[in-house]
Request: fold
Amino acid sequence: MTHLTKAPIHPDHFKNHRLLLKENEADARARLRAFWANSSLGRPAVLANVRGQVLPPAPPHPWDDLPAEERDWLPEVAAFGTDWWLSHATEKYMGESMPRAGGGVASCLGLPAVMAGATYHYAKDTGTAWIDPIPDLYDHPLPKFDPAETRTAQYRACIQAILDNVKGRAFVNPPIVLDPLTSLSLLRTPEQLCYDLVDRPDDVRRWTDALTELTIDLYEWIYQLLLKHGHGESGAFFTLMTEGRMIAVQCDFAVMLSPAQFEEFVMPYLRRTTEYLDFSMYHLDGVCQMRFLDQLRSLPKLTGIQWNPQPQDGHPLQWIDAFREIRKRKLVLAVGAETVDEQVELARALGPDGLTLFLPQFDTVQQAELAIQRIQQAC
Reply:
């Protein structure tokens, strides 16, 4: 059981929302609502951004010399970063793309492991955050959500700083989180977790269940804060906005699992989390995860699939039959492609209902408008 009651959203909460950096927002919101309802307003929802100018160098600050692992938790850094970006960014949000702000701790996805007591470090070459494994993890008490815990309170303070500085220009994204089994693989190392699935399955289940509840409680705690300040939209990490709670449910570690293991170790998290959320989209990380499609379809509250093939899997037109299988199961679908021509063919083959297309970035507004027009004509 979670510690927090799911706060209801008033039916009129989003009625008069206005994001100052978004043109044609009312039309975009209507098209997004149609997409999430497995329908459309005549064409797929499309996310199309026009490149802006490079941000100017930021002025020096006292925190510049601090390690990135410390800067992550400073509200003043979150406040400055939010206002600086929103004040200087010239990117254009076309179609159903929406401006958003949010806080990233441990590259965002490492947040559940950190809240469970882990430390982390940033790789100097890539800037990616890596969780430091805990060898005797299963001897530790199970992690629980505690709003008074130092890290939790610091994270909330950073979100509050973002809310104070966004000033109506963008929506504020709730926490972006990694799934519990993949988080556990970071805490134990992927190699050790493979052994644990066979040798210590009860410990794996105990910890994934605990991480699931911790994540939901943390998300709801922050979401209630967002609602209080007039927000409540969600965009996960792929910026496809919803009016309500939404997480990109996923399991990157599932590429190493059989369907039977997926049922045992992943489906309880997916079932619990999708039942909590207002909307959910499974981040299908690699086409090898298509073997779990029927299991995913059995989740009554799963809304859809975000297609995320690996480079070796080829361009999306090779997978039209797979997309049709997803749509036959009444799941909405979000697909990216490298060229507008590919997106046009996807729209022609799949139709407009329940489909979102991630377009490549454009250099001009005219290019983006032409691409959207071509997609609409293809339906």
Remarks:
- The chain has a mean pLDDT of 94.
- Residues 201-228 form the longest helix (28 residues).
- The radius of gyration is 21 Å.
- Residues 39 and 353 are 4 Å apart (CA to CA).
